[in-house]
Amino acid sequence: MKFNKIGLMLDCSRNAVATVDTLKELLDKMALMGYNRLQLYTEDTYEIKEYPNFGHMRGRYSGEELKDIDAYAASKGIELMPCIQVLAHLNQIFRWSEFESINDCNDILLVDEPETYKLIENMFRSLAENFVSRNVNIGCDEAHMVGLGKFLNRYGYQDRFEIVNRHLRKVLDIATRYGFRCSMWSDMYFRLAFDGDYYKNSDKPIPPEVLERIPKNISLIYWDYYSTDIEHYRKMFIRHNGCAKISRLDLRCKICV
Predict the structure, then answer these.
(1) Whole-angstrom Cα distance, residue 201 to residue 188?
(2) First-to-last CA distance in the chain?
(3) Helix (H) or strand (E) holding 29
(4) CA–CA distance from 9 to each of 27, 76, 132, 231 (Å)?
(5) Per-residue pLDDT tens over the stretch 202-256
(6) pTM, to two decimals
(7) Rounded to 5 degrees, what are φ and ψ at 30?
(8) For residues 33 and 18, is the Cβ–Cβ distance under 8 A?
(9) Which of 36, 33, 35, 58 is nearest to 45 (CA)?
(10) Running DSSP on this structure, what letter comes out for residue 18?
(11) What average pLDDT does the segment 39-43 reach?
(12) Per-residue model confidence as pLDDT tens digits over 96-126
């Protein structure tokens, strides 16, 4: 298997946002090792001018800082790629009352709420202004309770696979307007296909009828922190490769150890 990109995803969302100088030092080391992509995992730690409380007091990067990092990465032959969240993992913003209306439950955005897509529109506007790359990881992992909070009270119970798909189509429409090519973590599709499980049924492919419902203009990313079994990874690679062949999705693999 040949990989055209080899990179690092740096978590800049959990209590330690790397400084600009630290990132430049990291980029120097990555260049020496032949890496050509750095993803900055930023849940709410990047500036959105229209939402001053987004990332407030969380060490967020300003737009000017991101442009500086981006230019430095490019000088080293490295793509700086944004990695954000457009469905879950946004618990930090919900401490602010202005975001209460778009909170489904826990750390999850409220699907089908116009204000949700207003926020996401401004997310992509910020990325377009501050990153040269038009590749973006939009997250969407571990949204286990999607559709089961405020959404349930407002609209009643709905097929959660379709809720995720409907949301994703709206996000992709926004991303396309800004010229972005999107990838996302694959676990939600696997979990919805296998009653909440991502890893245990590693020898079972996603049913074709499920694959056909996945939007064609999204790349699925395999993530896994949990196994030391080589055979487990082999089977999961095969499952994801099956997604690529049947749904014409790019295979992108991320292994975190």
Answers:
(1) 14
(2) 20
(3) helix 20-32
(4) 12, 17, 17, 24
(5) 667 777 777 788 888 888 888 887 788 888 888 888 777 766 544 434 434 444 4
(6) 0.89
(7) -60, -40
(8) no
(9) 58
(10) P
(11) 97
(12) 999 999 999 999 999 999 999 999 999 999 9
Q: CB of 30 within 8 A of CB of 78? A: yes
Contact between 63 and 50 (Cβ < 8 Å): no
Round the CA-based radius of gyration of the chain to a whole number and report it: 18
* Contact of 214 with 158, CB cutoff 8 Å: no
The answer to whether the CB of 106 falls within 8 A of the CB of 8 is no
Which residue, among 31, 36, 124, has the nearest Cα to 82 in the 3D structure? Answer: 124
Q: Is the dihedral of CA 142, 30, 70, 173 positive or negative?
A: negative
Measured at the CA of 209, the angle between CA 205 and CA 213, to 5 degrees, comes to 105
> What crossing angle do the helices spanning 114-130 and 63-75 adopt, rounded to 10°?
50
For 69, list phi and psi in degrees, rounded to 5: -65, -40
- Backbone phi, then psi, for 105, in 5-degree steps? -165, 160
Q: What is the torsion angle, in degrees rounded to the nearest 10, for the CA atoms of residue 23, residue 27, residue 28 and residue 33?
A: 140
Per the listing, tokens 């690529």 go with 244
Provide the b/e sequence for 51-80 (b: ≥16 CB within 10 Å).
beebbeebebbebebbbbbbebbeebebbb
User: Which pLDDT does position 94 carry in this prediction?
Assistant: 98
Structure tokens, 89: 């993992």
